[in-house]
Specification:
The protein has about 800 residues and is α/β, with parallel strands linked by helices. The protein contains 31 helices and 25 strands. Bound molecules: cobalamin.
Length: about 800
C-alpha cells in the first residue's frame, strides 16, 4: 500500500498507545520501554497484533526513545533496538496481511541550545541514525511525534528527509493554550513543517480528544497538508501513584468522529488508549469520507513563536542589522559584538518592526560563520521572524538550516544563476523569498519590463516546486535625484504585480531619496504612495518617526487598522517620540528582562561604583527576575526568554562576585557549610548568591550544585563532618524533595542543622518540613551561620 496515494480517499488509522500499555504490564519506573523489544518481544508483538485486529492500518514501532542519546546506558545500541522493533512490527503486519509500519521517532529527551546543551547538529545526528536504521530494517513511513520544540522537530525532519526516502508524518504536543513548550503556536509549527515539505501534520499526546478537537479550527485554517490527530485517552491524572486516563472507548470514538468531521485524515491514539479505544473509533469513523483538503495559499514566514502573514496588512522589515554605511556596526561585526547586534534588533522590535533583516556581510570577515552566530543569538533573544540577507549561497544555506522557523530570504533575482542557487534552498528548507525584478539585462526601466521579469521568476520557481505564494517581488526603488521618472515606474510596477499576478511586493524605501536633503520627507511620502499602490512590505528603519507616522496613518486611513485602534494606542497622549534606542547604558533590570548578557554584566559593574552589592541584588536583580517569572506564569513569555533572562542575571551576578572577591579581606577558611538545590530542581541563581555571601564571610562552602540527590547531601555531611546544610527549592513540586532530604538528614546525621530558602518557601512551609531555619533572602543564611557558630 502506498500510503501517500491512500491519503484523502479514506480515513487512515494509526494504532494507539504502547508505552502506557507496557506500564500497566510491569514496565518499571525508569525502565526503558524500547528494551522490551529485545527482552519481551512477544509482548510487543501481541500489542501490535491487537491493534491490527482492531482494524488499525499503521503500527508504530516501539522506538519512541531509541536514539543514541537516550539509549546510552540501556545496555543495548539504538540500532539493535530499532532493528528488533521494526522486525516485530513487520511480523505483526505480515501475519495480518494488511498494514504499514511507521518508524516512531520521539524527542531526544534533551533541550537544544540555548535552552539546553544539545547542539542542533547533535540532535540531527541522533535522528539520522534512527531514520537510516528504521528504513533499512523495512519501515514504510517515519512518524516524528510528541515534539514540543520547533527547533528539534526541524532537526528530525531534515534527518529523515536527507537520509531516507520515507514519507514523513509529524505530530507535535501542544498545551491547553495551544502552545508548545517553547512558546510556538499552531500556525508557527505548520509554517515550519510545510516549509520543510512534510507529508502529514498534526497533534499527539499531552491532551485528550476533547481538547484537541478545540484546536482543529486553528489548525485547518492554516494547514494545507493532510492532518493527523493522535490524542491521549483524556488528561492524565495521578491516583494513588498510578497514572490514570479517564476517557473510555465510546467517548473517545465520539470525539474522534468530530475530529474527522473537522478535517483529520489520519487518526489514532497516544497514551492511555488501548485496542478497545481504536476498535470503537474505527467502528464509528471507518465509512466517513475525508473532508477535502483546501490549499490555503497563504504567504507566511515564522519565528519559533508566531507567523507573520503577508497580505492582511503592510509588513515592516527592520533594516538596521546591516553594516552598509554604518561604521559603528562594521566595528561591532569585526569585534563579534553580538550584544550590539541584539540591541539593534530589540530597538527595532520596540519601534514596531514585524520582521528583522539580518545582513552581516563584510569583505574582511567570515560571513558564513558570523551569519550563523548572529541568527542563533538573535533568535534566542528576539521572537520576530528574520530575513536572511546575504549574497553568499553557503551563508544562506547554513543560516536557513539553523533558523528556527520559516525565514524570509533576501534575495533572488531573474538571473539564471541566482535562481539556480537560491530556489533549491527555498524548496528544501522552506522560506518566502524576495525576488528582485532584474535579470541579465539589468533593471528594466519600465514597469512592464519588471512585470515580465517577475513572470519569468514565477515560471522558473514553479519548476523547482516553489509556489507563487512563496515569492515577494521587490520592484526596486531608484534614486529620483538621478532619474526623476523612476518613482512613477516603481509605483506602477507595484500595481501591475498586484493586479496582473496577484502577488505580493516589497521595496527598500530609502533608495528613493539618495542625494537629497531631509531625506525622511521624501521617504515618508514615497512610502505612503507605495502603500496606496499596493506595497505589501517595506524594508526600512522603524526608528524613523516620519516613516512610522506615514505607516500608522496609512493603516488608519485605509481601514487596515480597525477603528484606528493601533493609531490611537501609538499616538494618543504622547509626544510621538520613537522609543529611545537601546543604547550602551541599558539599565540592569531592563537588561535582565530582555535577556542581554553583556549589557547586564556592564550595568552591574557600573552600579557597583555607587551601590551596595546586596542592594543591587535585592532592588534590581530579584525584582527583574520576578517580572520575567510573572510573565512566564501568565504565558506571555516563554522558556527560551526565561532562560536568556536567567543567563543575563547570572552575568550580572558574576560582576558582583568579582567585586566581592576584590573587596573581601582574605581570611582563613571557616566552618564548612553544604549548599544544594534539591533533587528535581535546576534553579540555582539564588543558591549561588547564598554561596557568595557565605564565602564572603569566609565560610568554607561545599557546593553540591543543583538537582542534588538527598543521599548525596547526607553522605557528604557525614563524610565531611559538616554542621550546617543549606537547601534551596524554587518549585512547589520540589519542596517534597527538600522535605525528604531533611528527613534523611535528621535520621542519619541528627547533629546537622538545616536552613532552607527559595521563592516558593515560607516560614510556615519550612516549619512543616522540619527545617531548623528559614530565610526569605540570602543574607539570612549568614546571620544564621553566625549565630550557629557563635560569631555574632
Ligand atoms: C530564572 C528561572 C529559571 C531558569 C533557572 C536558571 C538557573 N540556573 O537557576 C530556567 C530557565 C532554567 C528555569 C527553568 C524552569 N522553571 Co523557572 N524560573 C526562573 C525565575 C524567573 C527566577 C528564579 C530566580 O533565579 N530568582 C532570583 C533568585 C535570586 O531568587 P531565589 O532563588 O528565590 O533566591 C533568593 C531567596 O529565595 C534566597 N534563597 C534561595 N535559596 C536559598 C537557600 C537558603 C538556604 C537560603 C537561606 C536562602 C535562599 O536567597 C536568594 C537571594 O535573596 C522564576 C520566577 C521567580 N521570580 O522566582 C521561575 C520559576 C521558579 N520557574 C518555574 C518553572 C515552572 C520552571 C520550569 C519547570 C519551566 C519548564 N516548563 O520547563 C523549569 C524547571 C526546570 C527544573 N526542573 O527545575 C516556576 C515554578 C512554579 C512553581 N511554583 O512550582 C517559576 C516560579 C515561574 C512561574 N511563575 O511559573 N527557570
Amino acid at each position: 500500500m502506498d500510503i501517500l496515494k491512500q491519503l484523502g480517499k479514506r480515513i487512515i488509522f494509526f494504532e494507539g498507545g504502547m508505552g502506557s500499555i507496557l506500564q500497566q504490564n510491569g514496565l518499571a519506573p525508569g525502565e526503558l520501554p524500547e528494551v522490551w523489544n529485545v527482552e519481551k518481544p512477544e509482548f510487543i508483538l501481541n500489542v501490535h497484533r491487537e491493534y491490527l485486529k482492531a482494524g488499525c492500518d499503521i503500527v508504530k514501532t516501539n522506538t519512541f526513545g531509541a536514539n543514541s542519546i537516550k539509549m546510552e546506558d540501556s545496555g543495548y545500541t539504538a540500532k539493535e533496538l530499532i532493528e528488533k522493533a521494526v522486525s516485530i512490527a513487520k511480523q505483526a503486519v505480515n501475519e495480518n496481511g494488511h498494514g504499514l509500519v511507521a518508524m516512531d521517532i520521539g524527542p531526544t529527551g534533551k533541550l537544544l541550545r540555548p535552552l539546553g546543551d544539545l547542539e542542533f547538529d547533535g540532535a540531527y545526528e541522533a535522528f539520522k541514525e534512527m531514520a537510516i536504521v528504521g528504513e533499512q530494517a523495512g519501515a514504510d513511513v517515519a512518524l516524528i511525534e510528541t515534539m514540543s520544540d520547533t527547533h528539534e522537530v526541524k532537526a528530525a525532519v531534515l534527518a529523515v528527509k536527507e537520509n531516507t526516502k520515507l514519507p514523513v508524518f509529524v505530530t507535535m504536543t501542544f498545551d491547553e493554550n495551544a502552545k508548545l513548550l517553547t512558546g510556538g503556536d499552531i500556525p508557527a509549527a505548520v509554517a515550519l513543517l510545510e516549509g520543510l515539505g512534510v507529508d502529514g501534520i498534526g497533534f499527539n499526546c499531552g491532551l485528550g480528544p476533547t481538547q484537541m478537537k478545540a484546536f482543529m479550527k486553528e489548525l485547518t485554517a492554516c494547514c494545507s497538508t493532510p492532518i493527523i490527530v493522535n490524542p491521549n485517552a483524556g488528561l492524565p491524572k495521578n491516583i494513588n501513584g498510578q497514572t490514570v486516563y479517564d476517557v473510555n472507548p465510546e467517548e473517545f470514538a465520539k470525539e474522534m468522529l468530530d475530529i474527522v468531521m473537522e478535517g483529520a485524515w489520519i487518526i489514532g491514539g497516544c497514551c492511555g488508549t488501548t485496542p478497545a479505544h481504536l476498535a470503537e473509533t474505527i467502528k464509528v469513523c471507518k465509512g466517513i469520507m475525508p473532508v477535502p483538503l483546501e490549499q490555503k495559499n497563504l504567504t507566511v514566514i515564522s519565528s519559533y513563536t508566531h507567523t507573520v502573514q503577508f497580505g492582511p496588512r503592510p509588513i515592516i522589515i527592520g533594516e538596521r542589522i546591516n553594516p552598509t554605511g554604518k561604521s559603528r556596526f562594521k566595528q561591532a561585526l569585526r569585534d563579534h559584538d553580538m550584544d550590539y547586534i541584539l540591541k539593534e534588533g530589540i530597538t527595532q522590535q520596540q519601534n514596531g518592526a514585524h520582521v528583522l533583516d539580518v545582513n552581516v556581510g563584510l569583505p574582511e570577515i567570515d560571513e558564513v560563520q558570523l551569519m550563523q552566530d548572529a541568527i542563533k543569538e538573535i533568535q534566542s533573544v528576539i521572537d520576530l521572524p528574520l530575513q536572511i540577507d546575504t549574497t553568499d549561497p553557503i551563508a544562506m544555506e547554513k543560516a536557513m538550516r539553523i533558523y528556527n522557523g520559516k525565514p524570509l530570504i533576501n534575495s533572488v533575482n531573474g538571473k539564471e544563476h541566482s535562481m539556480h542557487e537560491v530556489f533549491p534552498l527555498v524548496k528544501k528548507y522552506g522560506g518566502v523569498v524576495i525576488a528582485l525584478t532584474l535579470d541579465e539585462n539589468g533593471i528594466p526601466p519600465t514597469a512592464e519590463g519588471r512585470l515580465e521579469v517577475a513572470k519569468k521568476i514565477i515560471a522558473t520557481a514553479e519548476t523547482y516546486g516553489i509556489p507563487k505564494t512563496d515569492l515577494i517581488f521587490d520592484v526596486l526603488a531608484m534614486t529620483i535625484s538621478a532619474e526623476q521618472e523612476a518613482a512613477a515606474a516603481t509605483l506602477k510596477a507595484l500595481q501591475l504585480i498586484r493586479d496582473e499576478l496577484g502577488a505580493y511586493t516589497s521595496l527598500g524605501i530609502s533608495n528613493i531619496s539618495f542625494g537629497l536633503p531631509q531625506r525622511e520627507n521624501i521617504n515618508a511620502s514615497f512610502f505612503t504612495m507605495a502603500l496606496q499602490n499596493g506595497l505589501s512590505a517595506a524594508i526600512m528603519n522603524p526608528g524613523s518617526q516620519g516613516m512610522m507616522k506615514a505607516y500608522y496613518s496609512y493603516c488608519a486611513l485605509s481601514g487596515v487598522d480597525k477603528q484606528c485602534m493601533e493609531y490611537i494606542s501609538v499616538y494618543s497622549g504622547q509626544t510621538t517620540e520613537a522609543t529611545a534606542p537601546v543604547g550602551a547604558n541599558i539599565p540592569l533590570d531592563q537588561a535582565v528582562i530582555k535577556g542581554l548578557k553583556e549589557s547586564a554584566h556592564a550595568a552591574a559593574q557600573e552600579l557597583l561604583k555607587t551601590m551596595e552589592p546586596l542592594e543591587i541584588i535585592n532592588k534590581l536583580l530579584v525584582p527583574a527576575l520576578d517580572v520575567v517569572g510573572k510573565e512566564f506564569e501568565q504565558g506571555t513569555l516563554f522558556l527560551p526568554q526565561l532562560l536568556m533572562s536567567a543567563e543575563a542575571a547570572k552575568a550580572a551576578f558574576e560582576a558582583i562576585k568579582v567585586h566581592f572577591e576584590k573587596s573581601g579581606t582574605v581570611q582563613e577558611k571557616g566552618e564548612k557549610i553544604i549548599l544544594a538545590t534539591v533533587k528535581g530542581d535546576i534553579h540555582d541563581i539564588g543558591k549561588n548568591i547564598v554561596k557568595v555571601l557565605l564565602e564572603n564571610y569566609s565560610y568554607d562552602v561545599i557546593d553540591l550544585g543543583k538537582d542534588v540527590d538527598p543521599g548525596l547531601v547526607v553522605d557528604t555531611a557525614i563524610e565531611q563532618n559538616v554542621q550546617l546544610v543549606g537547601l534551596s527549592a524554587l518549585m512547589t513540586t520540589t519542596v517534597v524533595n527538600m522535605e525528604e532530604t531533611i528527613r534523611l538528614l535528621k535520621e542519619k546525621a541528627p547533629h546537622v542543622k538545616v536552613m532552607v530558602g527559595g521563592a516558593v518557601l515560607t516560614q510556615e512551609y519550612a516549619d512543616m518540613i522540619h527545617a531548623d531555619f528559614y530565610s526569605k533572602d540570602a543574607m539570612g543564611s549568614v546571620y544564621y551561620a553566625q549565630r550557629l557558630f557563635g560569631k555574632e
